[in-house]
C-alpha cells in the first residue's frame, strides 16, 4: 500500500496509465522529482509487480517503463481517488477552516 499511495508512486502510476515512458520523459511528465527518487520509485514499483521495465539492447541503451496488468488495476484506483480529491478540494478546505475556527 505505501508504495502505491506514496507521493511519487501515485504520480508514476497515473502517468503510466496514459502510455509507456522512457526515464527522462517520465521525469519531465511528473516534474520536480529527483533522478534518485524516480529511480527508487520505479524500482520499488517494479519489485511489487506494478511496473514493467523493458531494457532494449541497443546503443544508446533504451529503457521503457509501462504498467503491468496489476499496475493498471492499481493505477485506475489511485486515479479515481485523485479525481475525487480534485472535485472535492473546496469542501475539504471548508471543513479545515471550520475545524480550525472551532479549535481557536
Mean pLDDT: 96
Class based on secondary structure composition and strand pairing: alpha+beta
Termini gap: 35 Å
Determine the oligomeric state from the structure. single chain
Shape: elongated
- Helical amount among residues, as a percent range? 55-70%
3D structure, described in words:
This protein is 69% helix and 13% strand. It is elongated and about 60 Å long. It contains five helices and three strands; from the N terminus they run ααβααββα. The longest helix is centred in the C-terminal third of the chain and has 35 residues, at 69-103. Helix 2 (7-18) crosses helix 5 (69-103). With 104 residues, it is an alpha+beta fold.
Concise overview:
This protein is of the alpha+beta class and 104 residues long. 69% of the residues lie in helices and 13% in strands. It has five helices and three strands; from the N terminus they run H-H-E-H-H-E-E-H.
Amino acid at each position: 500500500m505505501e508504495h502505491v499511495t506514496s507521493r511519487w508512486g501515485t504520480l508514476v502510476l497515473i502517468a503510466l496509465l496514459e502510455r509507456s515512458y522512457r526515464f527522462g520523459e517520465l521525469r519531465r511528465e511528473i516534474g520536480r522529482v529527483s533522478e534518485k527518487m524516480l529511480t527508487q520509485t520505479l524500482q520499488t514499483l517494479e519489485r511489487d509487480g506494478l511496473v514493467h521495465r523493458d531494457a532494449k539492447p541497443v546503443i544508446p541503451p533504451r529503457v521503457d517503463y509501462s504498467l503491468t496488468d496489476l499496475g493498471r488495476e492499481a493505477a485506475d484506483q489511485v486515479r479515481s481517488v485523485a479525481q475525487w480529491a480534485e472535485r472535492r478540494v473546496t469542501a475539504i478546505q471548508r471543513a479545515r477552516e471550520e475545524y480550525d475556527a472551532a479549535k481557536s
